[in-house]
Amino acid sequence: MQLSIKIKILQVGKVKNKGFSLCAQDYVQKIKRLCKLEIISVKNSQQKNKTLIQAEEGKLLLNKIDPRDYPILLDETGKLFSSKDFSQFLQGIWEKKMKNPCFLLGGPYGHSDNLKQNVNSILSLSPLTFAHELAYVVLLEQIYRGLTLILNHPYHNP
Rounded CA gap, 97 and 135, in Å? Predict the structure, then answer.
């Protein structure tokens, strides 16, 4: 069964590690069987200063958000969810807000304050800091898990 919903992931850079890439591809295929999924990568900034890097990458990400998106920034300081709460969060966006969840993954230097002020939610995958590529895989797994919870699929064992 496929849900009539769409999820968008905007990320800085591409996954270069083959192990992470293979794992990510597996979850992308699983998610695409359950809903529409769009993944957009923007280029890493070539600036030399952390603040300028964050600002440039933030602008690139903001330019990829459309009015039907519900932007959710991933940051270690964001709100923590259990997997079940995360699935309810996703479902709530579709049902109440009639928008598409749009996850924003930053580069090595994180997100600018300007970008943080222009999103609907800030979410944390963990209080730990993850490498960009690993955070991407964890996000994909949690999206898949959330969708299976919504569909009462046995992937998530209580």
Answer: 26
- Domain CATH code at residue 56: 3.40.1280.10
d(C-alpha 86, C-alpha 40), whole Å: 22
Residue with tokens 């579709």: 94
In Å, what is the CA distance from 50 to each residue of 20, 107, 108, 147?
Answer: 26, 11, 9, 36
Domain assignment of residue 5, yes or no: no
Query: How confident is the model over 55-91, as pLDDT tens digits?
Result: 999 999 999 999 999 999 999 889 999 999 999 999 9
Number of domains in the chain: 1
Please give the biggest Cα pair distance in the chain.
48
Q: How many helices (H) and strands (E) does the chain have?
A: 5, 5
Contact 112, 98 (CB under 8 A): no
pTM over 0.90: yes
In a domain, 156, yes or no: no
